[in-house]
Design goal:
The chain is mainly alpha-helical. Among the domains are: about 60-165, no CATH class; about 170-210, no CATH class. About 70% of the residues lie in helices and about 0% in strands. It contains 10 helices and no strands. Helix 3 (about 35-40) crosses helix 4. The longest helix is centred in the middle third of the chain and has 42 residues, at about 55-95.
């Protein structure tokens, strides 16, 4: 540990030992927490490099594939329902017309194509493999900008990345909001409505963006 090697005092060494011990205990099973694991794997700055346990990496990939397959199956189901409705409408309209030469030649072929459904499993594997083959981006770059530029390439993975990347790594920002609300609601401003308090806190938090 570079930090420990650069600490000469006994007090500093003991403090580092306690910090390392507590961090190791607190984050012992982080790779087993699927929310954290998916967020780490879908971060283009880390991917598989965020894992030390190969078993946890494999479990994370399987979880991502399972979620993406469910998303695709839902999309296929919705598409199939829409196609069935459109086919029924077309068939009803066609039944009122006489059969022409094109129907006799291509009718069976068109029906066979309509019955073919995409394979969600193969699509999922291709999308995940393509993501794995992408180069690791610099650590100081913004992962969300990377996903934004590739939203069309990975239409399913980007949804998972946005969902898991919103997790806060610390509760400090929330604690700061609570502290500000305590300062705002004092004896001289005790009649502020909850809606007004919410608006003031929101503007205070976003003031740095203005």
């Amino acid at each position: 540990m570079k930090l420990k090697a650069g600490t000469a005092s006994k007090v500093g060494q003991d403090l580092l030992d306690v910090l390392i011990s507590n961090l190791s205990r607190r984050f012992l099973n982080t790779e087993r927490n699927m929310d954290f694991a998916v967020a780490a794997y879908l971060d283009p700055r880390f991917k598989r490099n965020a894992f030390r346990d190969e078993t946890a990496l494999t479990a994370t990939k399987e979880e991502i594939m399972a979620v993406v397959r469910r998303m695709e199956q839902q999309a296929v189901t919705q598409t199939s329902s829409a196609c069935a409705s459109a086919t029924a409408t077309t068939a009803a309209a066609a039944s009122t017309k006489s059969v022409n030469g094109d129907d006799l030649l291509w009718g069976d072929f068109d029906s066979s194509l309509a019955s073919i459904q995409p394979n969600p499993t193969s699509t999922t594997i291709v999308e995940l493999r393509r993501y794995n083959e992408e180069d690791i981006v610099p650590r100081r770059s913004c992962p969300m900008e990377w996903w934004k530029s590739r939203a069309l390439v990975y239409p399913h993975l980007v949804k998972l990345a946005v969902k898991h990347a919103c997790m806060m790594a610390t509760s400090v920002p929330c604690e700061r909001v609570f502290s500000k609300s305590g300062q705002l609601l004092n004896e001289r401003q005790s009649r502020l409505k909850a809606k007004n308090v919410e608006m003031v806190l929101f503007l205070h938090q976003k003031s740095r963006l203005l």
